[in-house]
Amino acid sequence: MKELINNLRGDKVIWAFIALLALISFMPVYSASSNLAHGANGSGNTVSFLVKHFAHVGIGFLMVYWVHKVPYHYYKALATPLMFIAFATLAFTLFQGKTIGGANASRWIQIPFVGISFQPSTMAFMILMIYVSRYLSKKREVEDTFQQSLINLWLPVFAILALILPANFSTTALIFSMVLMLVFVGKYPVKYIGIILGAGIIFLTFFILLAKAFPDAFPNRVDTWISRVENFTSDKPDEDVYQIEKAKIAIATGGIYGLGPGKSVQKNFLPQSSSDFIYAIIVEEHGLIGAILILSLYLILFIRFLIASHKANTLFGKLLVVGLGFPIVFQALINMGVAVELLPVTGQTLPLISSGGSSIWMTCISLGIILSVTKKEEEIAQELAEKEQREEALQRLIDREINGETEEILETTKQYTNEEVEKSYAVEDHSDNPMKAVIGK
Questions:
Q1: pTM of the predicted model, to two decimals?
Q2: Most buried among 78, 163, 190, 278, by the most CB within 10 A?
C-alpha cells in the first residue's frame, strides 16, 4: 500500500479527497438501495447494489490512475477528434427513441456486448470543456475576431447544447453556465460574452415556443423539464412535489445528529434516494453534522482546485483545472440545492457519492486530467530540486578538490625547515667541485 501511494503523482490533497468522498459514499448508497432492492422489480438483495457501486468506484479509481499518467498537453491535440465523437454519440442517443419502463430514455445509450448504459451528455460536457480550454489557450497565441470565434468556438458549443437540450435541460444549463465562466476566466471579451448570453436566452425561448406549438415533434422529456421550471416558479403542484416533500421530511427528521447510519425512514418512500436525492438521506441519517461535513468537503476541494489552477505553469493547464474542476463542485451544490428546494428537480447527482456508473466515471476522468496538470507542476518542482542538489554536490566536490590541493602544497612546504630553505637559497657554494673527477684524470 505504501508503495502504491508513493507511485501516485500530482496533488496529494486532491487524491485524499477523492478517496474520502468515495469511502463516504458506501454507507448512504447501501442504505438507500433498499428502496430499489425491495421495489416492484427488485430482488430484495441490497448487497448486490453495494457490490455494483464498489465495482463502479473501483473502475473509477483505475480511470483516475491511468488518466493522470498521461501528460495533459496531449488532450489539446485530442480535443477536436473527441468533439466529433461527442457529436455522434449525442445525435445517436437523441434520435434512438429508446424507452425504459415505458418512459423516454433518450439521455442514455447502451454499450453493445457489455450491457452497460451511460449518459453521453456527461462525456460531452467533459470533452467540451477541454475543447474550450484549448481554444482559449490558442487564442492567446493567434488572436481571433468575434466572427471567427463564432465559427471556431460558439458553433461547436451550441451544437452540443442543442443535442442535449431536448432530453436534459439541467445539464444544458449547467454546461452553458460553465462555458461562460470558463471564457470569462480565459479573458474572452465581456461584451461578446453578453452577446452570447443574450443569444442563448433567445434560442431557449424559441425552442420552448416551438416545443409547445409542436409537442409531438419532441420527446416527452421536453414537457417534463418545461413543466418542472413552470411549476417551480409558480408553486403549482406536480409529481416532483412528492419527491421534494419526502426530501424535506428526511432533512427535518435528521436534526443535529441524525437517526444513525442505515436508519433512514424516507429512503423507503423517496424515489432516486441513492442518486438524485442521496443528500437528503445523508442528512436524515447523520444530521446537520453530516450535511455540513459533505458541504465542507466540496468547498475545500473547490479551494484546492483554485490553488492547483494558480500553480499550473501553462494557460491550458490553468483552464483545464477550472473547466473540469469547478463543474464538479457546482454540480454538488445543485444537488444539495434541489434537496432543500432552493432549485427545481434537475436530476444532477452528487459527484463521487451518488450511485451510477457514467457519472462516477466521467468525474474520475476529469479528476485524472486535473491530477495530470498538478503532476506536471510537481515534476517541474522535483526537477528543480534535483538540479539544485546536483549543483550543491558539484560545488562540494570542487571545494573538496581545491581544499585537497591546498593542503598538499602546505604539507610539501612544511617538509623544509627554515635552515634548509636558507641553505638552498644561499649564494656561496659549499658543495664539492663537480669537475674534480675529470681533473684527476
A1: 0.80
A2: 278
pLDDT tens, position by position, 158-192: 999 998 888 788 889 899 999 999 999 998 999 99
Give mean pLDDT, residues 381-388: 68
- The Cα 322–Cα 312 span in angstroms is 11
Q: Per residue in 70-125, pLDDT tens?
A: 999 999 999 999 999 999 988 888 776 554 444 445 567 777 666 677 788 899 99
Distance CA 53, CA 166 (A): 29
Q: Can you spell out the DSSP letters for 336-359?
A: HHHHTTSS-------TTTS--HHH
SS3 266: helix
Q: What whole-number distance in Å separates Cα of residue 275 and Cα of residue 335?
A: 10
Q: Round to the nearest angstrom and report the end-to-end CA distance of the chain.
A: 94
Answer whether residue 423 shows pLDDT above 60: no
Q: Phi/psi class of residue 356: alpha, beta or left (left: φ > 0; alpha: ψ in -120 to 50)? A: left
Looking at residue 10, the DSSP 8-state letter turns out to be S
Q: What angle do CA 17, 130, 84 make, to 5 degrees?
A: 130
CB 290 within 8 A of CB 298: no
CB-CB contact of 179 with 154 (8 Å): no
In this structure, the dihedral spanned by the alpha carbons of residues 100, 101, 104 and 107, taken in order and rounded to 10 degrees, is -30
Q: Give the DSSP letter of residue 109.
A: E
Q: Which amino acid is located at 289 in the chain?
A: I
Quick one: 208 exposed, middle or buried, by C-beta within 10 A (0-12, 13-18, 19+)? middle
User: Cβ atoms within 10 A of the Cβ of 344, count?
Assistant: 20
Give the model confidence (pLDDT) of 218-248 as tens digits.
655 565 656 666 555 555 555 567 788 888 8
Q: Confidence class of residue 266 from pLDDT cuts 50, 70 and 90?
A: confident
Which pLDDT score is estimated for 196?
A: 94
| Strand residue runs (E) in 3-155 | 99-100, 103-104, 109-110, 117-118
Q: Which set of grid coordinates corresponds to residue 317?
A: 493547464
C-beta separation of 15 from 8 below 8 A: yes
